[in-house]
Each structure stands twice: as C-alpha cells, then as structure tokens.
Amino acid sequence: MTSRTTQLTHFLATNPDAIVCTLTSVRGSSPREQGTFMLVGRTDLFGTIGGGALEYMVIEHARRLIANGQAEEAMDVPLGPEIGQCCGGRVEVSLRYANASLRDQLTAQIVAEDAALPHVFVFGAGHVGRALAQILSLLPVQLEVIDTRREELELLPEGIAARVVAMPEAVVRSAPEGSSYVILTHDHALDFLLAQEALARSDSPYIGMVGSQTKRARFSSWFRAEGGDARALERLVSPIGQQGLGDKRPAVIAALAAAEIMVHIGQREAEIARARAPKSLGVVIGR
C-alpha cells in the first residue's frame, strides 16, 4: 500500500462527513487539470486542487455544506482578479457528499493510479541512499530501497519499502518494465554489476550510479571489456546529482538526483504518449 492510499484510507476512516470537490471543467490556465479532486472534512483535508484563493473558497463552501447537512453544490470560478489569482482561466467545481459508493470509487481510483506509478529502485541505504529515499517517498513513484545490509535499512524512516537482498542484481532482472535504478552501494564491484544489469534493459528511463568521473571511466572500460555495447553507456548518469555544482553533501546530491530522476521519467512518459497518439492523415483533395 502506497503512502497516498494509506492517507486516503485514514482520512475516510476519521472523517465520516466529507465532501468530494472535483474540477469538472477547466478552461484556460489553471493550477490543476480537469478531474483533479480533493476531500474536505470538518477539520481535515486530503489532496489539493491547486491551492491559493480557489482552494480556500472551495474548502469554505464544502465546510458550509457539511455544517448545513447539504449534499451537493456547483461552483463556477474565474481565476482572475475577482478572487485574487492571476491564472486567467476558469474552472467549474462539483461538491458532493462522500457517501459509501463514492468513497469506494475514490479508493479504487487512488489504488489504480498508485499501481500505475513508475518504479524506482534505490540500491544502497547509506547516507545518500537514505536521503534520496526520503525525498522520493514524497514523489509520485513506487519506491523500494535494496541493500545487503539489514542494519542500514533499519535506519530508513518508517513507511519506506525496503528489502534485504543477497543478490541485488536479481532485482534488476525481475523489475517491472519502465523501472528506474539508482546505484549507490558500499561496494564498487556491486555497483558495476548492477549498472551492467540495468544497461542490459532498454526500458529504463533512468540509470544512475554515484561516484566520480574516474569511477565512470573505470566502469566504462570494464563494461566494454565485458562485451557491453559502448552506445549503452550514453544512458548511464554518473556521477548522479551533479547539475554543475559538484556539491558532495549527501542531502544535496540526493535532492539533485531526485530532480534528475523525475525529469528522465517525465521525458520517457512524454515519448510514450507521443508514440501512442494517433497520427493525423494528410488528405489531398484534387480539383
């Protein structure tokens, strides 16, 4: 169960009176897209429709419905000077009481959305690995931390999925399609083996290995000597989390690596979406 599913389950259990607020129409610029929803309880919230004046207005309306025992309402809100926002678009929001049927629908929706999130495997729970895991746990990915050392995994914050694995390279071989791999173990030989396994897959948006330019050069030489395709090395991000800064503090490396990972995942998702989009047919009409 992902953190979002857990949070929704807890919210529904502790908020018997709740209103589902859904963006049913979005015209022009808006903080969130059509279909986005949040749940408003008497004191608690789950999710967001973009924050700002719009969200505060919707929360106020939802809590008024709860207080008055009303079941639903609709809002048509211009996102301009009238409410103190400058998006310039316009949204319609439906507010409905979260009855048992709607709660089941929302739970099923979140479970399905979370199951479709991309997988990210972090190999190594040392200083950088733990910092990276904490950041990635806040992002829309399915995270799992892998290490051969149980004592290091026990230092991870509660709620982060982790496994002690004697042969971590087997995790790469069996990982779901489209998984990303971040390699930062305590053993350079193991790092090399994991990177070799990851580069053997063509479906990975991101393959990153911690280290220096010297480590990358040594891996590249070893990889080619082992029969690896030199072109595959272009897919390896190493060192990770550089962004031109060269900062070696674990938390900074982790923050920059997390940004790298999300950019690569986003680019791959955009490529897949473009490939699946229907091709327009050029039609020439003669006279």
- The second-level CATH architecture of the largest domain is 3-Layer(aba) Sandwich
Low-confidence stretches: 283-287
Task: Tell me the series of helices and strands, N- to C-terminal.
Answer: HEEEHEEHEHEHEHEHEHEH
Q: What is the tally of beta strands?
A: 11
Explain the overall architecture.
This protein is elongated. It has 2 domains: 112 residues, no CATH class; 155 residues, 3-Layer(aba) Sandwich (Rossmann fold). The protein is an alpha/beta fold and 287 residues long.
Please render the helix and strand layout as text.
Blueprint: H1 3-14, E1 18-27, E2 37-41, E3 45-46, H2 52-68, E4 72-78, E5 90-97, H3 100-115, E6 119-123, H4 127-136, E7 142-147, H5 150-153, E8 162-164, H6 169-174, E9 180-183, H7 188-199, E10 207-209, H8 213-225, E11 236-237, H9 250-276
Parallel strand pairs: 6-7, 6-9, 7-8, 9-10, 10-11
Antiparallel strand pairs: 1-2, 1-5, 2-3, 4-5
Which structural traits does this protein have?
287 residues; alpha/beta; Rossmann fold; six-stranded parallel β-sheet; five-stranded antiparallel β-sheet; 9 helices; 11 strands; 41% helix; 19% strand; elongated; disordered C terminus
Quick take:
By secondary structure, this protein is α/β, with parallel strands linked by helices. The protein has helices at 3-14, 52-68, 100-115, 127-136, 150-153, 169-174, 188-199, 213-225, 250-276, and strands at residues 18-27, 37-41, 45-46, 72-78, 90-97, 119-123, 142-147, 162-164, 180-183, 207-209, 236-237.
